[in-house]
Amino acid sequence: MATPVTMPKLGLTMNSGTISRWNRQEGEPVGKGELLMTVATDKLTFEVESPGEGTVLKIVIPEGRDVPVGEILAYIGQPGESIDAAAATGADSRTNDAVHGTEDRGPAVSAEKISVPSGLRATPLARKTARESGIDISHVPGSGPGGRIVRKDVDAFAAAPSRRKTKASPTAEKMASDLGVDISGLETQGRVMKADVAAAASQAVPFPKAEDVRIPLTQMRKIIAERMSLSRATIPSVTYNMEADFTDLMEFRGKIKAEGMKKGVKISYNHILMKICAAAVKEVPLANASFDGDAIVLHGNVNIGIAVSVDGGLLVPNVKAVQAKSLLEVAFETEHLVEQARSGK
Prior knowledge:
This protein is an alpha+beta fold. The chain has helices at residues 85-100, 124-133, 151-159, 170-179, 194-204, 219-234, 247-262, 269-283, 327-342, and strands spanning 3-6, 16-22, 29-30, 35-40, 45-49, 54-59, 66-68, 72-77, 111-112, 212-216, 289-291, 295-298, 304-305, 308-310, 313-315, 318-319.
């Protein structure tokens, strides 16, 4: 019968170990006492020798997995020798649990996809026509191949009797046209105003969701991350301050301020800084990462919180996917979220 290889206990306090590397692969011969694998613990890395002589018949646990002491890792035996069915099944089951136990964690060595709704399919001309007509294109039924929305669908939707003329302020109409918001379906007490359009825009336009990437941790880095997280949570942090020359930024804001006012929004320094921060974070992905138990997660989207002073303290509305939005869109959404926070919504 084949010889099982288990996770050895390499220290008095060791409860588990991570297979850093398999030095022999399935089907390769190995002699007793020869290097079989490399195991990492929270403190050290060990080279583990083969407990028997023969061929690596089956590798049960892949590299990068944290495994409890005593868990079966592989089988060694003579070519063609059978592996105990019960042991192999049990080990495979445990492996599958480790690999696929929580679907939201995704593969350890590849990018994890965030669950996102199917994208809206429409031709560029249809989108342009809808935007110019103040129509929310997500309400337009498509007649093209696969349900794709084409220009004639938008024209037909615009001409439909059900599309009553909605009273709106000139600023609201201009804003709706710029943002592609259909104001005909907005429920208001009277005329549609700028705030109504801003609210509809922030709710109707789904932000683009990018992939998060998971980087599995070695046992040592996992311990370091846990202890640093504990330190961050229990020890007061220090804010670093520095001076910067804002001459060019002030000149830039002066150029775009008037354009923003024409579209019903005041572009502030905060809005510009949000876009600058998003661009900087995309250049340094580790600055937009978090620790998730057994992996470092590099977040695909740059979400930025804005502190808002309210009665009784602070609220921090979160602007999603700042890196994928225009400065005007960031300004609209930020101001809408700030208004909601201050009104207690």
